[in-house]
Amino acid sequence: MFISRMRLVVPLVVLLAACGGGDDPVSARQAPGRGAHSAVVSVTLEPAGPHCSQGGSRIETGYDADANGTLESGEVSAVQYACHGAPGSDGSSGSDGSSGATSLVRIESETAGAHCADGGSKISVGLDADSNGVLDLAEVTSTSYVCAGADGVDGVDGADGTNGTNGTNGTNGTNGSNGLNSLIAIVDEAAGAHCAFGGKKVSSGPDANANQVLDVGEVTNTEYVCNGATGAGGLAWVNVTGTSQAMAGNTGYLASSASQLTLTLPASPNLGDVVAVTGAGFGGWKIAQNAGQFITARNLSNDMLAGAVWRASGPNSGWTGAVSSSSGRTLVGISWGSQIQVSDDAGATWTARESSRQWMRVASSADGSKLVAVTYGDQIFTSTDSGVSWTARDSARVWWGVASSQDGNSLVAVVNGGQIYTSTDSGASWTARDSNRTWDAVASSADGSKLVAAAFGDQIYTSTDSGATWTARDSSRGWQAVASSSDGNKLVAVGTSTQIYTSTDAGLNWTPRESARNWIAVVSSADGSQLMAAVQGGQIYVSSDSGATWTPRESARNWVALASSADGSRLAAFEAGNGLVYTSAAGRSTVGTSGSVSGGLYDALTLQYVGGGEFVSVQHALTGSLHME
Length: 629
Description:
By secondary structure, the protein is an all-beta fold. A hairpin with a 6-residue loop joins strand 26 (431-444) and strand 27 (451-463).
């Protein structure tokens, strides 16, 4: 017995070449001395209409009377329809709607009798109403038969000789050759030219060598029934009652066990693959990861906000500066007396670049391809290949800070005890600006036109003409770091024994925030709403309202540098004095086999693979909060 099943969000697996429908098979006794005609099937898409309200497949069958391998309109003897089930209604907010019923096709042997005089195959079609994976008798909506050809009849006796000398009797006619059985073969069709999203390939033809196998040379007709694009609501669902299961792409799992079910993500997923889980049992579920994989499920609960949970990573080093690409996937850390370290996987792994120098600060273009790093008592160094190779620029100076425009073309660097320098050609040439001051930090708008620089024991200075002219702002304080929104209007500055100061008008006015602490570093999201500041020897503080309120996070450490993605969802913090790198993300699990996400009864989560080992939450329905490791 052969059973084929597919979800009805896609065209169904076909009915096969048949002798006819109901109790009227097309198969007939063959003419004396002649072989049977081949049975042929033709499958075409049936649009939504009177035959199938939701669309489906039209299956035409008949004998190939003219032996041209094609079922002509005049050869069609029976027509059947395999119709899609009605789609389920939309799910409640955050949950998937139910899928249409599954169509089942069952093929079984038919003994010689009323339906097929010489035996054949019985084809039953119906919808799996009770979802038990079996086409029950009550679920059969259509039946047809593929019948074997009959043996040819004996030839008639030869005529008697004429009178006279008795003629010899005529020899008996030779027996007619047996009719050929018609065979059908159904195999999976991979995504490609015939079916963009895969499907089924249906081949038919006569069994010329009577080996009960449809050989390649016997195929006279081929049809394809193709899947539609798979969506989060069109998954094939599997009920799991055990405690462990490896997940497959584009599949959903009902966790029905009384004990926690551990589901492991697909080891080699295709881009766009979707997996889902729903807690149907009291044990709940846990999604485990393979090496290099992680899950991003943002804003599902408060404990998943960026900065809430921190994880140590990266090599130990005497870090002095850091920067992140807009996506947060590329991180660059620099340290005193060591090489530059680059990570392309949000801090999971690091690669040493360039030579060991007295690195001070580093800046990046939005995509992380163009980098600029400054040194204490050495030159400026630039890279256009994400840090693989570096070029020395300008002169040896006591460089203290650097910033970059979004495209990496406009750069600004400051010298402690010297001037501000600007470049409009990605660092190839530099122009001295303003006066000698104890410059500590500098930041830039996305287009490089609005700049802000701070000098220790001096004021904050702003420029609206790419550094050509500068205006003193606020009061003299022990400034240590500044950050800017992408439009250059929202600014934040921190210093030693001072409060945090914010501005919403490009530095014209400043408002003190939080308490006076030994602030050492600060970063901002592109829109200026998500801020992070670090206290030297203290905690990290985060704000999601442009600095109006602040929440302490992580433990007290000797923080020295911070980095943030453009949306503020991925953060990194660096320790001084042979310290570690710490990363945090909004709803991001730990990279690798130690990371996981778990939920309980009635909790549901749908993930899609977006590449680079990352699965992103695309839908969810929660009765409580997910737990992420």
